[in-house]
Amino acid sequence: MGGRLTVLEVDRRTRGLLFAVEVRDHIEWMRDQGFALRTMRTRLSVLVRFGRYLRARGVNPGEDIREYAEPFVRYSIRKSLRLKRTQDPERLAAEQAGSVRQFIRHVERTGRLKPATATGTLEPVFQARLDGFVQFLRHERALADTTIHCYQLYAARFLAEAQKSCASWSALTAGQIDDFLMFQSRTIGRRGMRAVCCALRAFLRFLRMEGHVLIPRLEDFPGPRAYRQEDLPRFLSRDRVRLVLESVDRTSPSGVRDYAMLLLLITYGMRAGEVAGLTLQDLEWSAQRLRLRHGKTGRTDTFPLSVPVGEAIFEYLRTVRPQASCRQVFLTLHAPVRPFQGGAPVSAVARKHLLAAGVSLPRLGAHLLRHTTAQYLLAQGFSFKTIGDYLGHSSPSSTSVYLKVDLEGLREVACNDGEDLL
């Protein structure tokens, strides 16, 4: 019994509890994902206590158990402190909240509990228009998924507030828009507010295009003033890039994986999401080629697979990558083993090693390395068109954001009268 967690033990401990079947399935899933025995036993204990908590409060099988998760954690921590079972309540709270949150996601996947969404609280008429807006952006305007997600998020936030006081679209007022924008500006910067305004204008224009009656010029509100390419370019020198790569501990599994990811970012100027989405099929070892699908344009390019990048990826695949059925190259190293969900984890890896190397520029992340790649290509004399093709841009204006200033040329001007540059 002490060396394994049997089905009989799980059934015995969960007998009579709400979601007993789901708890057993969840523990089986953890076993399949390679969780340690100690972790599974801890998770089972937390879920048994959660089940007893629900039973004591008379929760019915059809109720939404998500609203009981946070009160359960607070109750459990108070009890542990009272019985002197913990000396680190914050860590215990994080562990228990994570256990319950992951179990709830499992119950959502079974279909017994409807998944919670950012727009789940919208009334049907508002939700229907939001869904239509998303379909319009995807199929009519063919926007990138990241842009669609951004527009959907801000439109949903606006509708969640608007439905509290509006019974119809014609009742929307400029005052409501002003109040919403003022509230968002408390936590969103000037550039971020431009995205909020663009999303809201696009949604209001969509409503008008669909034939809904709105007050005149409702979507013509001003946004925050910002100037294109107003910032100086941020990139790293070659020596600083070398320090970043040398800061990676390549004797650890995470270091081997992170090193391969960093080389992809700096060598090919890949976006974080493109690194996360890289699959085993994209690596053509016999032909020494790398197939890259650009996240924004949807275009697929083929590049020579450089020797350092190929060696780093091969070392990761040979010694570190967990056994998994998914085809993505880069996976989490600890259970549950799964691909990265979007580019945020990749950017977090880049930020971690940039900080370790002493880089103190604003907005550290994977995109800083992409800017660095563009500057290297410019310094080597490549044209804007070539650099844009290399980075996967569909418009020269996109490339110009990365290449706003030739700093090396400016240094030469500052050191002499500039006549030899004419």
What does this structure look like?
The protein has 422 residues and is an all-alpha fold. It has three domains: 7-110, no CATH class; 124-209, DNA polymerase, domain 1 (Orthogonal Bundle); 238-413, Intergrase catalytic core (hpI Integrase, Chain A). Helix content is 56%, strand content 3%. The chain has helices spanning 7-14, 20-32, 37-56, 69-82, 89-110, 124-140, 145-162, 174-184, 190-209, 238-246, 253-268, 272-276, 307-319, 344-356, 366-379, 384-391, 396-402, 407-415; strands spanning 283-284, 289-293, 300-304. A three-stranded antiparallel sheet has the order 1-2-3, with no helix packed on it. Strand 2 and strand 3 form a beta hairpin. Helix 11 runs antiparallel to helix 13 and helix 11 (253-268) crosses helix 15 (366-379). The longest helix has 22 residues, at 89-110. It is globular. The termini are far apart. The mean pLDDT is 85.
Mean pLDDT: 85
**Based on the structure given, which CATH architecture of the largest domain is correct?**
Orthogonal Bundle
Structural class by helix and strand composition: mainly alpha
Question: Biggest sheet: strands side by side, in what order?
Answer: 1-2-3
Report the end-to-end length measured between terminal Cα atoms.
83 Å
Shape: globular
Order of helices and strands: HHHHHHHHHHHHEEEHHHHHH
Radius of gyration from CA coordinates:
26 Å
Count of DSSP strands:
3
Q: What top-tier CATH class of the largest domain fits best?
A: Mainly Alpha
